[in-house]
Amino acid sequence: MDHSGQARPGRQRRFFGEVRAAVNVPDAISSSGVIVGSTYGENSNGDTFNDTFTYTGGRFEDLNSLIPAGSGFVLTGASGINNSGQIIASATDTANGTFHALLPDPS
What we know:
Layout: E1 19-29, E2 35-43, E3 48-56, E4 59-62, E5 73-81, E6 87-93, E7 99-102
Antiparallel strand pairs: 1-2, 2-3, 3-4, 5-6, 6-7
């Protein structure tokens, strides 16, 4: 995603769907006002979720849309964003459950 909120070429923007209950935990804010953090709760189907987000312009966006589909990682937290828009995120390797730190590229 670039700073205008547009998806990079070849990527589709994803927004969180209908939620029944959620807790949003903001972790950091950039000088341009982009907030990153984690959200967890229960969706309208009764399934629980734990995701990462950016919040800007009154909208939440799923940070998992910044990593390639099929990468084998699921972002589970975002702890920082610098003034260039780079985000530090935690991720789980879906193959073996190990945790990693990633730097999804927002540009």
